Amino acid sequence: MPIYEFKCASCGKRFEKLCSIGDNGEKLSCPKCGATGPSRVMSGFAARGAGKEELGGSGGSGCGGCTSTNCGSCGH
Ligand SMILES: [Zn+2]
């Protein structure tokens, strides 16, 4: 069975659980605050995607003011 990483929507606590395939974790509860319905974190996919963008370069659409390639946050 795969291990999934979850993030509590209430307190932000991250935790891992063994889940059967197809289980989306809706019934899990946070080990810290007990809130149910954590969101599943796709850490592997996220890390890979970000690294690829940095290595490949974006041909001028990257930001000079921050490390993001999507600069809604810094205004560049
Ligand atoms: Zn929590």
What is the terminal separation in angstroms? 44 Å
Structural class: alpha+beta
The SSE string, one letter per element, is EEEH
- Beta fraction: 15-25%
**Tally of individual helices:** 1
- Structural domain tally: 1
Low-confidence stretches: none
Radius of gyration: 17 Å
Ligand names: zinc ion
Overall geometric form = elongated
Number of strands: 3
Report the oligomer: single chain
Entry summary:
The chain has one helix at residues 43-56; strands at 3-7, 14-18, 39-41. The chain has 76 residues and is of the alpha+beta class.
Summarize the topology.
Layout: E1 3-7, E2 14-18, E3 39-41, H1 43-56
Structure, described:
With 76 residues, this protein is of the alpha+beta class. It contains one helix and three strands, in the order E-E-E-H. It has one domain (3-56). The chain has one helix at 43-56; strands at residues 3-7, 14-18, 39-41. It has a three-stranded antiparallel beta sheet, with no helix packed on it. A hairpin with a 6-residue loop joins strand 1 (3-7) and strand 2 (14-18). The longest helix has 14 residues, at 43-56. The protein is elongated, with a radius of gyration of 17 Å. Zinc ion (ZN) is lined by residues 8, 10-11, 13, 30, 32-33, 35.
